[in-house]
TrEMBL record:
The chain crosses the membrane at residues 6-24, 31-60, 66-84, 104-121, 127-143, 150-168, 188-208, 248-268, 274-293, 305-329, 349-378, 426-443, 450-467. The keyword Transmembrane helix applies. It comes from Paenibacillus lutimineralis. The keyword Transmembrane applies. The lineage of its organism: Bacteria, Bacillati, Bacillota, Bacilli, Bacillales. This is Transporter. Keywords: Membrane, Transmembrane, Transmembrane helix.
Length: 468
């Protein structure tokens, strides 16, 4: 399974180490990412114009890949603005305050609801649905916005996506690559997903409570309040909705999203299709509520709210696009932007690095478990989580054949590591949905997740060794 590594691979790896070091030190990495794209382009094209153009084209590529997420976040924010302006959100969340009374209940309640919803529809649409309804309740009872983002992120993009027991996209990819039945990989993943989930969420919750008591907690707020439209006195008066209409809308809006959930289930809508349904519903809610609230100024205010939503969306995503542009080069983006300059057998820079690592480590069960965790984490660096899990399955098959250990357990371990790192708990642009809905910095969310996820991966790897 060996592959020839080129200068491009080593340069990419060096910049990854530098970027991660800067992120940990809470420093901005935009300039380093641009430098990395430029240097890689210079090596690939051997022309100054090609490398300079590559920087811009990589930004376009990253924006195109992230556009669906930018849109759903922008639309949900726009809808939330008019709901807050009219007080509908207060009426809508009032019944929930009876059940969610403490920060702890809010953290675990949001997390568990997010996990169950994500099993059926994947995390991105689940974040949009749950964040819009439960975030105000959680903040009101004292859970920091960043704490709510952690709960949604760890339970949704972590636990639910790494197991993927309902949709079964992840276990099918890894099982096919390892030559195993999907059921065997899913069965082997159950104890690993449970251990990883418990260790990570309990650690994150304990660290949050500890830092709040110490006064060292940083919420990393990226508030959208300054984006709320400035209304004249006449418009403020027009933005009032009668109590009866407000109550009716407070019932109708959750029902519409519930209908979305039923439609996703009945029509088998997942991922982008499910997100599009939620986004379209939010647009119509925005239009109807704005027309009712602002009356003769409604047509103009619909546009105003949408603009404010898009401004917020791009404000949140702006710092992330250069970083995403660099890391996307680790996958198919490199060939698309700079041509076929990698070795013929290459499956992308990060996958090549994973294969090279597997080729130099000794073959035994314990080392196999550690290697699968590292390979899963490396291939997750592109922010997808799914792009490298086929490689994890292939490497697991290699170790299992050489050491006569459990192929299904190794395959499941690689899957868990890849998705926890790349599926949306550590890579800043992958966890943007939860960060943006909660109005917090994706970088601060990634930093809060870092220690719990690394501790979880370490404990899960040790457990996997005993299961081999």
């Amino acid at each position: 399974m060996g592959i020839h590594l080129t200068a491009i691979h080593y340069v990419y790896l060096a910049f990854i180490v530098l970027i991660m070091a800067l992120l940990i030190r809470r420093r901005d990495t935009t300039m380093i990412c641009v430098a990395g794209i430029f240097v890689l382009g210079l090596i690939a094209t051997e022309t100054l114009s090609g490398s300079v153009s590559g920087v811009f084209n990589s930004f376009v590529y990253a924006t195109r890949e992230l556009l669906g997420t930018i849109m759903i976040i922008s639309i949900i924010v726009a809808m939330s603005q008019v709901l807050m302006r009219t007080g509908i959100n207060e009426t809508m969340i009032a019944p929930l305050t009876r059940f969610i009374r403490t920060p702890a209940v809010a953290f675990w309640g949001i997390g568990l609801i997010m996990m169950v919803t994500s099993w059926f529809f994947w995390p991105s649409p689940a974040v949009a649905l749950i964040g819009a309804v439960l975030l105000p309740v959680a903040v009101r009872v004292g859970l920091p916005a960043l704490g709510a983002a952690m709960a949604m992120n760890l339970f949704g993009h972590g636990i639910a996506l790494s197991g993927d027991y309902i949709i079964q996209g992840a276990p099918k990819l890894t099982a096919d690559a390892a030559g195993l039945p999907v059921s065997s990989v899913m069965e082997a993943s159950v104890p690993l997903v449970i251990v990883m989930g418990l260790v990570t969420t309990v650690t994150a919750f304990w660290m949050m409570r500890r830092d709040i008591k110490r006064g060292t907690w940083r919420d990393g707020l990226v508030t959208s309040k300054n984006l709320t439209p400035k209304l004249s006195a006449e418009e403020e008066e027009q933005a009032i909705i009668s109590p009866d209409v407000k109550k009716g809308l407070a019932i109708a809006i959750p029902l519409l999203f519930l209908i979305d959930v039923l439609a996703m289930f009945l029509l088998h809508l997942q991922g982008g299709d499910a997100t599009a349904l939620v986004g379209g519903t939010a647009v119509f809610i925005l239009i109807v509520v704005t027309l009712l609230a602002h009356r003769n100024r409604g047509l103009e205010k619909v546009t105003s709210y949408l603009i404010d939503g898009f401004v917020f969306g791009f404000k949140v995503f702006g710092p992330v696009i250069p970083i995403a542009a660099f890391f996307y080069l680790g996958d198919s983006a490199f060939t698309e932007l700079f041509g076929q300059v990698l070795p013929e057998a290459s499956h992308g820079i990060v996958n090549d690095l994973g294969v090279a690592l597997a080729g130099v480590v000794p073959l035994n069960g314990a080392v196999g478990a550690i290697t699968l965790t590292i390979i899963g984490a490396i291939t997750g660096l592109d922010g997808s989580g799914f792009s490298g899990i086929s490689l994890a399955g292939s490497v697991a098959q290699l170790f299992a054949a050489a050491t006569h250990t459990g192929a299904a357990t190794l395959t499941a371990l690689g899957q868990v590591a890849a998705i926890w790192v790349g599926g949306g708990t550590l890579i800043p642009w992958a966890l943007i949905p939860a960060a943006a809905i909660c109005g917090v910095s994706p970088f601060e969310l990634a930093r809060r997740n870092l220690k719990p996820v690394l501790i979880g991966l370490g404990v899960t790897t040790i457990v996997a060794m005993f299961l081999l």
